[in-house]
Amino acid sequence: MKKIVHVAAAVITRQDGSFLLGQRAAETFYPNFWEFPGGKVEPGETPYQALVRELQEELGITVTQAWPWIRREHVYKHAHVSLHFFEVSGWEGEPQGHVHSALAWQQADALAVGPMLPANGPILKALRLPRVMAITQAATYGISAQLEMLDRALADGLRLVQLREPGLPAAERTVFLTAARAQCEAAGAIGVCNEGDALTPGVAERHLPARVLMRLRERPEGEWVGASCHNRAELEQAAALGLDYAVLGHVLPTPSHVGQPPLGWAGFAERVAGLSLPVFAIGGVTPADMEIARAHGAHGIAMMRGAWEGLRA
């Protein structure tokens, strides 16, 4: 078995959502392939310390803000690497190609360079995943009111919606889901349908309850598949199945979990550390919690009540 080489990798992002890629030099392994900047973690270093050092050496920039994100492993012919990805949103200096033959700012849904280094390729889909998930509550607000709020939220930029309506009667649920999915599609948003014990054939976007997740032995069909999780075992199952994301909570006190202690941010960070898929923080969070969530390893936040506050007519 090859020794695992730990690598710090940087997803350096600008306000417009673009990220920086570097093209590997001709004399290296995988010459001319594109990669996220970074490098090997040296003895005595933490991955974060390696990240700061490597970006100074490779790009000539000084990191001022970086969040832990996801971790992926890949076995090359020459090495077994464990990539610790960080999202770098703050830095000083202008990136310069000190070791790469070229640099390019790219968008995940419109990549204009290639090929990508194999270990980095799966990260591109994760970068297409929005940072905010809104969860519908048509059973509480009423179908018409929820559809109106969804329309306003989509117009304001919402791009990820979990359609979760266990409280609606079957016929009303079908009416709501059909209309809501059409709204999401028209807006270019991802609308994941929360599924019960029977998985619906042909659904392209689906969200799994934990009880269903833990019974599966392979990833269900679908372009986007995620799951609700409450503990590390469920998160590891979601990662092992190759799901696109997980939702973990409840992080903060919430009226729907009275008497149940929240995870807290430290508990959330402990449970998501080292996972290979993006995880949303849920439970009592609001848009104001985005920065603290990402500082503790969250991809973003998922909200029920908080998603619709201020949108009611």
Automatic annotation (TrEMBL):
UniProt KW NADP keyword: no
Nudix hydrolase domain boundaries: 2-131
InterPro entries xref list: Aldolase_TIM, Mutator_MutT, MutT-like, Nudix_hydrolase, NUDIX_hydrolase-like_dom_sf, NUDIX_hydrolase_CS, NUDIX_hydrolase_dom, ThiamineP_synth_sf
Cofactor: Mg(2+)
Residues annotated as binding Mg(2+): G38, E58
Coiled-coil regions, chain positions: none
Biological process annotations from GO: DNA repair; DNA replication; thiamine biosynthetic process
Catalytic activity annotation: 8-oxo-GTP + H2O = 8-oxo-GMP + diphosphate + H(+); 8-oxo-dGTP + H2O = 8-oxo-dGMP + diphosphate + H(+)
Entry's EC annotation: 3.6.1.55
UniProt KW keywords: DNA damage, DNA repair, DNA replication, Hydrolase, Magnesium, Metal-binding, Mutator protein
An example Gene Ontology molecular-function term: 8-oxo-dGDP phosphatase activity
Residues engaged in binding 8-oxo-dGTP: R24, E35, F36, P37, G38, N120
PANTHER family according to UniProt: 8-OXO-DGTP DIPHOSPHATASE, NUDIX HYDROLASE FAMILY PROTEIN
Protein family membership: Belongs to the Nudix hydrolase family.
Name by which UniProt lists this protein: 8-oxo-dGTP diphosphatase
Species assigned in the record: Candidatus Dactylopiibacterium carminicum
